[in-house]
Structure formats: C-alpha cells, structure tokens
Description:
Blueprint: E1 11-15, H1 26-34, E2 38-42, H2 63-66, H3 78-93, E3 98-104, H4 106-116, E4 123-129, H5 138-142, H6 152-156, H7 163-166, E5 168-170, H8 178-188, H9 194-203, E6 207-209, E7 229-234, H10 242-255, E8 262-266, H11 277-290
Parallel strand pairs: 1-2, 1-3, 3-4, 4-7, 7-8
Antiparallel strand pairs: 5-6
Helix pairs in contact: 3-4
Organism: Microlunatus soli
Keywords: Hydrolase
GO molecular function, one term: hydrolase activity
Amino acid sequence: MATDTSSSRPTIIFVHGTNSSALLGAGLITELTLRGHRAVAIDLPGHGAEVVYPKAYRSPQDLEALATEPSAVAGITVDDYVARTIGVVRRAAAMGPVILVGASQGGVTLSRVGNAVPELIDRIVYTAAYCCVDLRSLTDYLGTEENSDSLLSKITDAAVGDPRQLGVARINWLTSDPTLFAGIKDCLAATFTDAEARRLVTLLEPDEPASIPLSDARGRADTWGRIPRSYVRFNLDRLIPPALQDRFIREADALTPDNPTDVHTVDLPHVGPFEHPDLVDILEHLAERTAAPTGC
Length: 296
C-alpha cells in the first residue's frame, strides 16, 4: 500500500513585517512550493489585498494633504494581527506540522502567537526579525547599544505627518527626493541595484499602525519558550544590525536554556530577497526536520 505523506509535511507560514504584505514573501512561497513544500504567506489586517492607500499618496502626490489624511489602519492592533495569524495556524495545524516564519516586525506577531497557541506550532523561525525577551517591546530595543548602528533613521527621514495624530507611522516610499531614496535603499536593500530598490518601494505600503512597535511582545518561557526555535541572521542587515539579532538570540537562550536557538546566517540585507537560495535551503532543511513520521 502506498504511503500517504500529505499529513506529514509541515505547512510553512510566512508573516511579513512593517509597511509590507504577503507580496514580500511571494518569491519565497513560490520557490518552496516548486520544491514540493506546502507554504503560504499571510496578509496581516489592513495590508496586501486589504490595503487602502491614502488618496494623497498616489501620483500626483500632495505631501501637505498626506500629512493629515486619516488612515484606514489607524485602529488596527497587535491583537488583530495575532488573531489573523492564529486563524491560519489552526487551519494548517489540522493538516499536519506548522512552521511559523516571520520577518522584521513580523517577529512581534510570532512571539505573541507563540504565547497564545504553542501547542499548534512545531517550529518558530525569526528571519532578521525582532524577538523581544528581556525588554517589553520592539521600541524598547531601538535605544540599545546593539542597535546603535541601525540606519532606521534613514527610513523615518521619509516619514510624513505626526504618528500621534494619525495613529500610524506613514512613510513616503515613493519620494522623489534622491537623498531620501538613497537612505531607504541603504537601510533596507544596500546590495540591490537602484532599479531593484525602486521596484521594492512600489511594493511597500505607507501606513503601519503606530501601536504595534509599542506592544508587549515578550516571549514567555512557559508557552513560547516550549516551541523549537530558529533564528536566521541577515549578516548585511542595516535596519536590525547583526549585533541586535545576536542579542535576541542570547536573551532567548538565557530564558530557555533547555531549548536553545538553532542559528543560521545568510549574507542578505534586511529585505532579502526572501527567495534567495541560501534562505530557501535553510527553510527546506527545517521543514524536513519538522516533518512528522509517516506510516502506511
């Protein structure tokens, strides 16, 4: 009798970061699928298929109006992100093992989901992502010594409006200012060509709820800490410096010494690209390790 392996293969679920969508992981999902894996990328609430661009953001831009135009995502919270992700995790877990992968701010969602439903996740993978342990929130880590080399300020230089009034961090990715564009490229994608970087910024979304980076995102030892954990260091990251990525790993290992982090390193900037063969190879290896035993 033929062996049924459908329920043995893990589902790899990709959670995007700030000002982004499932499009960031589209190449990764395609490559994993072509290699025979089950994989999906989530659009977090208000992103991707649900995005509502401010009218003043599109050509022709009106920066004065953009600074005050209300945002459709201002009221979205981290709990909404977590609920959306748990819904996908539950459906995937009904079919077999689950590997939850997150990029950048997606790490906030990963840790919160790990706290909520550890029994449904077989491995959690941070890819150059925030992994809060000792400090409460993503924002708390921005002032640390390990983050001192971050070029995040080159992104905030392109910000428009007051987050306290808008309820969102609003970035003008489509800026025509060559200095601002160069700063965005340096921070996110220094190894990209200008053409590749311009294609990238057209995929990014201007608004991100301002509350997400301030949310409590600490992984708890008794829940999140039970899940096998991997961290993929992006060695060329200039938004989350390698030193800060290493701090996340150290803190996690100190919290759960019996469940140390499985660490990998790739020579990629902050936004990958995530379909890079080295990263796909790592996730494929983790999927093979996570696959459930099969029977006839």
